[in-house]
Amino acid sequence: MNLSHSNRGKNLCLGWLLAGILTAAAVAAESAPPRLFKTAQFGGETASPAVLSIANWAVDSNNNGHLPFIILDKQQAKVFVFYADGKLRGAAPALLGLALGDHSVPGIGDRKLSAIRPFERTTPAGRFVAALDHNLHGHEILWVDYDLAISLHPVVPGTTQERRAQRLVSPTPLDNRISYGCINVPPDFFKDIVSTTFAGTNGIVYVLPETVSASIFFGAYDVNNSPQ
Predict the structure, then answer these.
(1) Are 111 and 85 in contact (CB under 8 A)?
(2) Is the model more confident about 25 or about 181?
(3) More confident residue, 153 or 16
(4) Residues sharing a CB contact under 8 Å with residue 177, sequence separation 6 or more, in sequence order
(5) Closest CA to 182 of 109, 76, 119, 82
(6) Alpha helices in 45-194, H assignment, sequence order
């Protein structure tokens, strides 16, 4: 018996078998239905491409961990609140930190407001696990980052010169930068939407960056479906 011929025959059989397996796998892949992406449901609410992208990615990847979530679009000064399944609960304008930037000064949460210089008054970008609590005056707030002293709360009166209430309802986001870093929203929106959505549960707050791409910042992939 010629062993070289025998081995050649075995190799040919193995090659045919492997080719058959690869062909069958290719046919199965072609015939399999494409994966359907999950998307957030905005219900006709206008949102920037960055908000649409991060909301869809959060829902499809379950980055929100089956928890309600909020997206703050700093460039548009607008807050979006979602149920855990990605259905929009409500949206509203917001006031945010006076200074441009996506990072906080180390230790800023331990400083008095009077010691925080204007250029340090940023609303940091990031993914935060948030929860309802009460401030020192007994008013309900949503802690975004306790260590940085960043919270989302009903708009505060501020000084006469700050005109916070007027800034909140103005038609442009250009005058919405006034706070020390916290996120101010309309009182009724906080009471009816934020408070009831986060009652009894933690949630996620995505603060979109304004100095880099939101997708790059969060490591988000593109969901090629339009929101409903």
Answers:
(1) no
(2) 181
(3) 153
(4) 77, 95, 96, 97, 98, 99, 100
(5) 109
(6) 49-61, 164-169, 187-189
Contacts of 201 (CB under 8 A, 6+ apart): 67, 68
CB atoms within 10 A of CB 170: 13
Question: Could you give the CA distance from residue 181 to residue 226 in angstroms, rounded to a whole number?
Answer: 32
- CA gap 124, 149 in Å, rounded: 11
Please give the model's pTM, rounded to 2 decimal places: 0.82
Closest CA to 51 of 211, 228, 207: 207
Give the position of tokens 């929860």: 131
Nearest of 187, 194, 195 to residue 168 by alpha carbon: 187
Q: pLDDT tens for residues 106-165?
A: 777 767 777 778 777 899 999 999 999 999 889 999 999 999 899 999 998 777 788 998
pLDDT of res. 91: 98
Output phi, psi for 91, to 5 deg: -140, 150
